[in-house]
Amino acid sequence: MDKSIEILLAKLDEKLNQQTKLITTLVTQNVMAALDEKLRAITEENAQLKNKIKTRTIYRRLQKKLKEMLVSKPRSKESYLSKDTLELLDERRTLISNKGDKERHQKTAKLSKEIKENMRKDHKEKRNKVLEENIKRTGGTKKAMKQLSEHDDLVLLEEDPAAIEQMMQSLANKSREVGLDINASKTKLMTNSRETDIMVDGNKIEYVKEYIYLGQIISPSDEMTKEINRRIA
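RESULT FIELD:
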């Protein structure tokens, strides 16, 4: 009987030890999981704080540079910026210096977008003005008008698409002054690189890959075989 009790007690001890180990393992796992979750949350929060600090630092640097540009740097008297653009720049400078305005960041962003659009327009106007002055200075229009009075075929060559568009529009304007009109159906555009759009009097000039000029096929590919076959036919 005593032997049986000892065996039973031994089994109970073993069971208790197993349960104790199991409980200890589960508790440890739960505690570690909870710690991992808290550590993960803390790590994510730290990363967000770092990003905010980094963004704020970059913003302050840009703000400082902008202040230096607007306040310290004197404006050139020959600036191509329009009066409206300059007024917007002054308004933005005042807004940046007004730290009491809580919405100044949003207002500054809106002003910056408007200033960017105005600068783009001002730059385009300046470029067109320079092109027109160069055309007048080099006598491009006068030469074209002289050729028009002698021939009904004219070729304009230019590397810059904006420049050729300006030249063609100027040619059309000057032609009308002497009672001549450009035949839009016979006017073609050809390049030796990528296709581009040219507008004259609001009409798009047709882009072609080859054109018969003075009785011969003109093409960037210089296909003489095609020209020979055309003449034989």
